[in-house]
Amino acid sequence: MMALAAPAARADVVVPDRSLSQWNGEDGYRLWLRHEPLEGAALEQLRAFNPIPGTPASPESETLGIAESELREGLAKLTGGSIDADRPRGVIRFDCGRRERGGDGRFRVTSGARAIRISGPDHLSCLYGAHALLRELSRGVDPATISLDETPAMSLRLLNHWDNPDGHVERGYAGRSIFDWWRLPERLDRRMIDYARANASLGINGVVVNNVNASPLFLTPHYLPKLKRLADAWRPYGIRLYISARFSAPRDVGGLPTADPLDPAVKAWWNAKADEIYAAIPDFGGFLVKANSEGQPGPQDYGRTHADGANMLAAALGKRGTVIWRAFVYKAEDETDRVKQAYQEFVPLDGKFAGNVIVQVKNGPLDFQPREPFHPLFGAMPRTRLMLEAQVTREYLGQASGIVYLAPMWSEVLGTHTGRGGTVAQVIVPGGIAGVANTGSDRNWTGGHFDQANWYAFGRLAWNPALSPERIAREWAAQTFSREPEFLDAIVPTMLASAGTVEKYIAPFGLAHLMGTGHHYGPAPWVCDLARPEWNPCYYHRADKAGIGFDRTAGGSDALAQYAPSVAARWADPAQMDDRLLLWFHHLPWQHPMRSGNTLWHDLVARYGQGEAEAGARSALWARLADHVDYRRHAEVAADLATQEKEARWWRDASIAYWQSLNGLALPAGVRRPDHPLDWYKAKTFPEAPGQ
Length: 692
Ligand code: GCV
Description:
Layout: H1 10-14, H2 20-23, H3 40-49, E1 51-53, H4 62-78, E2 90-95, E3 107-111, E4 115-119, H5 123-138, E5 147-150, E6 157-160, H6 190-202, E7 206-208, H7 224-234, E8 240-244, H8 249-252, H9 264-280, E9 286-289, H10 306-317, E10 322-326, H11 341-346, E11 357-362, E12 385-391, H12 407-415, H13 424-427, E13 432-436, H14 452-463, H15 469-480, H16 485-506, H17 537-541, E14 547-548, H18 565-572, H19 582-585, E15 588-589, H20 600-624, H21 631-663, H22 678-682
The structure holds 4-O-methyl-alpha-D-glucopyranuronic acid.
C-alpha cells in the first residue's frame, strides 16, 4: 500500500505542468464503470473461480447480448485479462425467461462452487444482475459467496434533463447538452450509448430529455425521428424516453386558438399527438409538465385546475404512458408565504387525478436549498400518486465546485417520517423518484469529478432508498478512483461531511435563498428590490437591526400547520429543535440564547467560520491523497477544491458584512473580519456564469 504523500505545493494542484501523456491519462469519461484490475486476495479469489460467462452462446435479445458483453469485458478488466480458458471454469449462467422487458427489473445473483446464476423474470433483470455482480466483484467480494436478491423499491426511477434544443442546459454546470438535436437522427453520438450504459448500471429506467421550461418543438413532427432514434438506442438498456410537454403546444405549434384542456379540439389535438408519438415510439414513457409556474402556460390560464390539465393529457396517453405533473408552483400575486402555496393548491385536488397521473414534488417546499424541511405534500395526498424530485445538479449548492456529495441529504429526506402514512420513501412507492440531471458535454460528464458521485448515488437510492450514503460513497469511490483502504478511509468521511460544509457557509441555521439573482451563484442577501417579492433574498431572511429568520409558526405564516401535528411539534420550539432549521421556522433576536450558551449572532458567525475551515481542510486532505489518484483527475479536483475554498470565504465574508450592516454588532473576540467592505461584495457581477 502506498504511504500518504506530503501535501503538494499550492501551484502544483492547479497547473497541468506534466507531460502530455500524464495529462492524457484517465479523464473521468469512464465514470464508475472502469473495472480496474483487482489486486491481492480479491484477484486470487476471482482467478480461482475463473469465471466465464456461459450462456447464451448467441444472445436471444439485444438486452441479453449487452448483459453478456458487459460481463465478459468487465471480468476481463477486473482480472487484468488473466482468465485461463484451459482451466475448469466457473460458469456464469443467465436464466432470465423469454421476455426482453416488461417486469420490474428484479434479479437474483446466486453462486455455487463452480457456477454463478443470474436470474429474473426478463432479460433486463439479467442486465441489472450483470452490473450488480460486477459491482460486488469490484468491491472485492469473493465470487463464491455472492448472493443478491434485489427488487427496486419503486417502479419509476427517472432523470429529468433541463436541456434546451439549442444545447444550453438550464442550471447545467458541465458544458453544453449531451443531446445533439442538430445532428440527430442521422448521427447518434457514442455518448448516448455510454449514457444509457451508466444509467442501466444503476437501474435508472427513464429519461426526460428536455427542459420543463419546455419548447413546443419537441411536439412537432420534425423532432419525432430524433426522439425515435434515441428511444430505439436506449430501449435495450431498459430506458424509456419521456418529454417535457409545453401545455400551450396546441396553440404554439398546433394552429388552434386555445389550449383550454376542456376544449374538444384541444383534446383531439393531444389525442392525435399521442397516437403519432406511439406509432414511432411504442414504449414512449409520457409527458412531464410544468404548468402555471414561473411563467409557464397551464390550465389555470383558462380557469381550469391542475387536475383538469393533467387528466386531459392522461386520457390522450391512456394505458400507454404516464403524465408527471409538477407541484412546483407559486405566484407573485399570492400574499401567502411562498412555501405554503403548493400545498394549498394541490391538497384540495387529492383524489381528483387520473390513475396514470403522478404529481412530482420537490424534496422541500421552496426550491432545492441546502437545507429545507421535507415538503408537506408528502403524506398529505393519500389518494394521489406522488413522486419525489431531487436536484442532482447543484444549482444552490456551489454548482460544480469542490466536493459536495448529496446522498446524505436525499437519504435524510427519504427516511423522514411524514407523520401521515409512513416515511417519504414509503409515500412515493406508487409514484417514483426523479433527479434533475447534472450531465453535460464535459469530458467527465458532470463538470466536477465528484459530481459523478451524485448521479451514482441518485440511481442507487432510487433503486433502494435504504442504502446508506456511506456504503454508496465507498462503492462509488472504489470503482471510480481507487480501492486502496487508505484512500477510501480518507475520502468517504470527507464526502459524507461535504454537503454539511456547504450548508454551513451558504445556509447556516436554515437560512435560504440568499444567492445572486438569475445565475444563483454566490451570496447576495442584500437583494430586496426585485419585482416579484418572493424572488428577493430579503423576503426569506427578514433580517433587521433586531433579528433574523422567517416566522413560520402560528404567530407568523403558520406554514408549520401544513405538517402533521407530531412533526410540527418538533419544530415549534426554538429551544428544542434541530438547529439546522432554526431560522427556517423562527424569527429570532440576534441575542437569542442558543443551546451552546452563546448568542445566535455568535453561533452564526462561528458556523460560517466552520464552513470555511472545513472547505480548507478538504483541499489539504486531497493534496495528501495525490499518490492514490491519477494525475489529471487529481489536478482537476484540486483546482475545483481551491475554487470551493475561495467561495466558502466569500460566502462567509459577504454574509457577515451584510448582517453587520443591519445589526451593527461587533464580531466575537478573535474572529477574522471580512476581507472587504460590503460594497465590494455587492459590486460583483457574473455575466459569464453558466446555467442561467
Ligand atoms: C427549470 C428554479 C430554477 C429554475 C427551474 C425551476 C423549476 O426556479 O432556478 O431554473 O426551472 O426551479 O424547477 O422549474
